[in-house]
Amino acid sequence: MASSSLSFILSLLLAIAATDAITVHLLNKCPYTVWPAAFPVGGGSRLDPGQAAAIQVPPGTAGGRIWGRTGCNFDASGRGSCATGDCGGVLACAAGGKPPATLAEYTLGTGGSPDFYDISLVDGFNVPMSFRPVAGSCHAISCAADINAKCPPELRVEGGCLSACVKLGVPRYCCTPPLTPSTCGPTDYSRFFKGLCPDAYSYAYDDKSSTFTCPVGSDYQLVFCP
Fold it and tell me: What was the pLDDT predicted at 6?
């Protein structure tokens, strides 16, 4: 009886955990090839214009990020490089991408805790992106502006637009000591990104207008060039 009860409880817990797992649906609407990358779950792949793919994310995954790489060239073994978003010269990423890269970020809730999700330009911008829960009334985030075309010359690099923090590396732009959350605010550079993509993170402490929540278990859709 005790063994049967334990088996039932374990089965119930596994069933509950499974309902927290999500699928992130990827779609490339860009007129060029994008190589999606994901960390710590999802690795990487290739999406030609109009192609779709999906990433299965385990429940409770924290600190997840997905981004699009551009200008990539990989050999049959999956070795190569990308102009933007490169992750150590491999197709299936096992680490974050090299800036500039538009990031879709998420932390999946468990139990009664919600999911947290955002689009971040803190590492700069390379590909327009939208990121939204598939069902329900949770907020759909979009950063569809052509930031690359309007990028300040001092932040412009091949295929993208670096953030001032990545390019200049000073506390004012990176919110590093001696600055604190209460003393580090927006700058002209972060306002440039924020003006074009109001829902996206533009600097490290841009939380109030850039972090969104959705009930645990929601699936998501990420569209490149929405």
Answer: 42
